[in-house]
Amino acid sequence: MILVTGGAGFIGANFVLDWLAQSDEPVLNLDKLTYAGNRENLASLEGDARHLFVHGDIGDSALVADLLARHQPRAVINFAAESHVDRSIHGPEAFIQTNVVGTLRLLEAVRAYWGGLNADAQSAFRFLHVSTDEVYGSLAPSDPAFTEDHVFEPNSPYSASKAASDHLVRAWHHTYGLPVLTTNCSNNYGPYHFPEKLIPLMIVNALAGKPLPIYGDGQQVRDWLYVKDHCSAIRRVLEAGRVGETYNVGGWNEKPNLDIVHTVCGLLDELRPRADGQSYSGQITYVKDRPGHDRRYAIDARKLERELGWKPAETFDTGIRKTVEWYLANPEWVAHVQSGAYRDWVQTQYTGAAA
Ligand code: NAD
Ligand code: TYD
């Protein structure tokens, strides 16, 4: 069994679904179900005995200790986090609580559990921490992409809290010998992405006839990775990564935000044309920039390719088309997220009440 935290969120849910599509090894899924946690993402696993969902907080030491003792996982994969930069600007406290204090408590509970395992189980055990390229700060246009040796220069409350968690994970290896792995990934996109982030927000706003808000000049660069490629990288690092190492994960897809939004509009123009025949790009609206907005992220993922043979399977063109198609094929998921009904999804499944 593996313990996945934050497995009802965007990347965690994709990871759990992909894991169980390829393996019968059960998943214990611990998630606090914040606004970003959506059990509807895991609807296809209802009744599947290989998936055990627990509603709880990684910072609840007693709960985590009990889960570890009862289920004896061979690995913990920590996705649980507050993840949205804009929210971190308006309310940083929750980011410190979950990303820093929560990770600390999780590490401590895992360390106690790991310390009690027999020697074979101890050496086979892994704690994999899922982190972000944002810990490295912002690049100038001509700078080389981030390698694993890049200095940490986090600029937002979100990235500062993730950087702190990465440092804790590193220290728990160096000080206590906990067998940890860390992955630092670039911006993900794909199915089940909460529509507060750029790509899903643009898709759902476009379809709803709403403005498509571009922060500042729209020339900020992000390095996009299809979420299922991130999941395959995590599986590979878990399987073969060198203990104590960090691995950057990226898709070699650096693009300015404005290009991304035009690509999304172009796909929607093709797949779901507007009734008036105009392009969705007419809905683009320039708005005030995000404070402290990082200009450019770019990941050098060569270590992962060289050491573990991982490469992304999707290009940006194939991944973004799949993503737009997924949102068009899942209007109910979008409607439930927009109405808030996703928060009651489990209840409505069992009572039959209208969502
Ligand atoms: P998300 O916000 O969609 O999901 C986070 C999940 O964690 C939610 O299900 C939420 O309910 C859960 N959670 C929050 N606080 C918790 C707590 N205290 N205890 C237990 N569960 C809790 O985030 P995501 O985009 O899926 O990101 C997952 C991880 O990957 C995060 O650690 C994030 O920093 C990292 N990451 C994300 C991206 C990206 O582009 N989305 C890129 C690189 C790294
Ligand atoms: P986001 O999806 O929030 O991810 P991150 O801030 O972690 O990179 O934003 C991606 C980029 O898109 C970022 O440069 C901010 C920009 N952006 C907009 O221009 N408009 C929006 O409405 C959003 C949500 C983001």
Structure description:
The chain has a domain at 2-191 and 225-252 and 295-314: 3-Layer(aba) Sandwich (Rossmann fold). It has 13 helices and 13 strands. The chain has helices at residues 10-22, 61-71, 85-90, 93-115, 119-124, 157-176, 198-207, 227-240, 257-271, 302-308, 316-329, 331-339, 345-351, and strands at 2-5, 27-31, 51-55, 75-78, 126-132, 180-185, 188-189, 212-215, 221-223, 225-226, 246-249, 254-256, 284-287. The strands form 4 sheets. Strands 3-2-1-4-5-6-11 form a 7-stranded parallel sheet, sandwiched between helices. Strand 5, helix 6 and strand 6 form a beta-alpha-beta unit. Helix 1 (10-22) packs across helix 8. The chain is globular and about 65 Å long. The structure holds nicotinamide-adenine-dinucleotide and thymidine-5'-diphosphate. Thymidine-5'-diphosphate binds next to helix 7 and strand 8. Its cofactor is NAD(+). Keywords: Lyase, NAD.
What's the N-to-C terminus distance?
A: 33 Å
Question: What is the CATH third-level topology name of the domain at 2-191 and 225-252 and 295-314?
Answer: Rossmann fold
Overall shape: it is globular
CATH architecture group name of the domain at 2-191 and 225-252 and 295-314: 3-Layer(aba) Sandwich
> By CATH's scheme, which homologous superfamily of the domain at 2-191 and 225-252 and 295-314 applies?
NAD(P)-binding Rossmann-like Domain
Give the amount of beta strand, in percent: 5-15%
The hetero molecules present are: nicotinamide-adenine-dinucleotide, thymidine-5'-diphosphate
Find the structural class using helix and strand composition: alpha/beta
Overall helicity: 40-55%
C-alpha Rg, in Å?
Answer: 20 Å
- Specify the number of helices: 13
Low-confidence segments, given as residue ranges, are: none
> What is the number of beta strands?
13
In round numbers, the mean pLDDT is 96
CATH C-level category of the domain at 2-191 and 225-252 and 295-314? Alpha Beta
Task: Summarize the biggest pleated sheet.
Answer: 7 strands, parallel
Strand order of the largest sheet: 3-2-1-4-5-6-11
Helix-strand topology string: EHEEHEHHHEHEEHEEEHEEHEHHHH
Keywords: Lyase, NAD
Enzyme class: lyase
Pfam families: GDP_Man_Dehyd (PF16363)
Protein name: dTDP-glucose 4,6-dehydratase
